[in-house]
Task: inverse folding
């Protein structure tokens, strides 16, 4: 071989070490594009050549998007930049939400030898978390732990809340955190100049920027409490409005005529007088049902609980801290506060709703906010709000049912910021005073009675199984198609619980049925669990 043909290896180009590689991971609507534009302007303002690209997810509002920026001190020559981030080759990773940080870690963009990870600790639930029938909430603390181990530096706090307090959006907070991290060799004033040059919402953006910059400069990372404070309640629990109240929560926190407040005080005292484990949940359930319907409905709830408690005592429930009655207090309240058209209309026309929407939209004072409700009622919903006899009559006649469906089954857009749209929903909400006489209510009460009878029928022979039977009710939620799917799962789980009745492990198998039903929306896991139960119960009876 000709020695002259042998090429000497080229020395590495030290200028490559000056390329700063930055990725922003955000969900559509979080201002990732605005943040990227600010970073580009910032780099150019400081004499850097810069390139930005984005890879949008395929989902509503562009889904989860990766914005990628490379920058290099200007040298007069046109640099060649990469179009997308590579594993192990990102200097700064900005995540607009905690699970986006987790996604970045899983994709290998975050490394312990070089990456500064900046993330907001708040949560924006992914579709995969929302579709789970039970609690599909991912564990933010696990992501934070992994981030602390995977990144060279980890800075995280609730930047969404900071932006909200300042009247701005999270992109301003993320920009401030980037400045506070000192991950880029730029003066803080150039960040401010970039925001001022944007020309929109400057004062609010600067306020959010400064608060976040100071927090990042302190190197803040989230605590477990901070990660969990905004987390939705697990599936099957009472909603946030009905979470356990403090010991001093009483009639003074309610508003209304004096006579009604006196009646509320009596009901509240009744709930408080129940055994300790029961009283806490009974107060929550009572407040929920009085809000849902009226004082008489709350009284019916307590009457039911008194009867259940008496049976629980007879079955030796006191030694078990009245677990049966406490569980019944929780799921009975949810069952009695079923979702229907009247409830939806009531929630959409409450006084505080429009102020909350205006606040969430961060609309400046004097701005007109339009609120459009997207409704699609079907014949089933229409029949449900008919008087029992009329509804049953229509339901039993296919021709009448088809005509009704043709009349109502169409999408509607109702502007509740206008008098006509608001009045229509307000009148629908007002029908709740006649709710007890409607077809849907009668069927819900019959269903509750059958469910409670089945549970009480097991309390003497198998206390644990009776408690698990009560918990099957958590499978039912929502309205329309969601309610129908939940009801189908409930029926299957109840049938499985009946098959294992009398076995020593009946409670365990019923708990497995519930877990399987909550595992996936299609119900395949539940069907598999039922087949397993049928295999040994049928074999045992043969």
Result:
């Amino acid at each position: 071989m000709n020695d002259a043909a042998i090429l000497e290896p080229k020395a590495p180009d030290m200028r490559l070490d000056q390329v700063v590689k930055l990725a922003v991971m955000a969900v559509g609507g979080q201002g990732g594009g605005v943040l990227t534009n600010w970073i580009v302007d910032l780099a150019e303002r400081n004499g850097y050549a810069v390139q930005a690209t984005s890879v949008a997810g395929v989902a509503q509002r562009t889904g989860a998007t990766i914005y990628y920026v490379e920058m290099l001190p200007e040298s007069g020559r046109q640099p060649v930049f990469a179009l997308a981030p590579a594993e192990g080759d990102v200097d700064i990773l900005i995540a607009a939400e905690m699970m986006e940080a987790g996604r970045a870690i899983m994709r290998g963009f975050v490394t312990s030898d070089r990456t500064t990870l900046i993330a907001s600790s708040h949560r924006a639930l992914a579709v995969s978390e929302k579709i789970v029938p039970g609690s599909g909430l991912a564990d933010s603390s696990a992501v934070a732990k992994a981030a602390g181990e995977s990144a060279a530096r980890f800075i995280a706090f609730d930047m969404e809340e900071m932006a909200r307090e300042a009247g701005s959006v999270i992109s301003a907070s993320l920009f401030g955190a980037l400045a506070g991290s000192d991950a880029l060799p730029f003066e803080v004033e150039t960040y401010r100049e970039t925001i001022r040059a944007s020309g929109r919402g400057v004062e609010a953006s600067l306020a959010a920027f400064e608060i976040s910059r100071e927090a990042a400069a302190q190197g803040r990372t989230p605590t477990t409490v901070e990660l969990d404070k905004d987390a939705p309640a697990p599936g099957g629990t009472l909603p946030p409005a009905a979470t356990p109240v403090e010991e001093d929560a009483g009639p003074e926190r309610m508003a209304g005529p004096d006579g009604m407040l006196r009646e509320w005080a009596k009901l509240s005292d009744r709930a408080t007088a129940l055994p300790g484990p029961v009283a806490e949940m009974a107060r929550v359930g009572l407040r929920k049902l009085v809000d849902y319907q009226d004082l008489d409905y709350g009284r019916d709830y307590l009457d039911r609980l008194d009867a259940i408690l008496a049976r629980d005592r007879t079955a030796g429930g006191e030694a078990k801290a009245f677990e049966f009655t406490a569980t019944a207090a929780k799921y009975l309240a949810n069952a009695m506060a079923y979702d229907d058209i009247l409830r939806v209309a009531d929630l959409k026309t409450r006084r505080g709703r429009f102020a909350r929407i205006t606040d969430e939209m961060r609309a400046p004072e004097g701005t007109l906010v339009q609120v459009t409700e997207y409704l699609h009622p079907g014949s089933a919903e229409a029949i449900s709000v008919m008087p029992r006899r009329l509804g049953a009559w229509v339901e039993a006649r296919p021709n009448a049912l088809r005509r009704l469906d043709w009349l109502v089954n169409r999408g509607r857009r109702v502007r509740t910021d206008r008098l006509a749209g608001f009045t229509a929903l307000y009148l629908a909400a007002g029908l709740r005073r006649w709710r007890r006489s409607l077809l849907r209510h009668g069927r819900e009460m019959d269903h509750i009675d059958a469910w409670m009878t089945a549970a009480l029928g097991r309390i003497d022979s198998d206390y644990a199984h009776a408690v698990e039977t009560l918990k099957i009710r958590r499978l039912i939620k929502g309205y329309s198609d969601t309610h129908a799917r939940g009801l189908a799962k409930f029926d299957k789980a109840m049938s499985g619980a009946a098959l294992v009745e009398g076995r020593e492990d009946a409670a365990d198998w019923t708990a497995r049925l519930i877990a399987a039903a909550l595992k996936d929306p299609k119900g395949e896991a539940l069907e598999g669990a039922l087949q397993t139960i049928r295999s040994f119960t049928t074999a045992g009876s043969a």
Q: What stands out?
A: The chain has three domains: 15-228, 238-337, 453-542. The radius of gyration is 29 Å. The mean pLDDT is 84. The chain is about 55% helix and 10% strand.
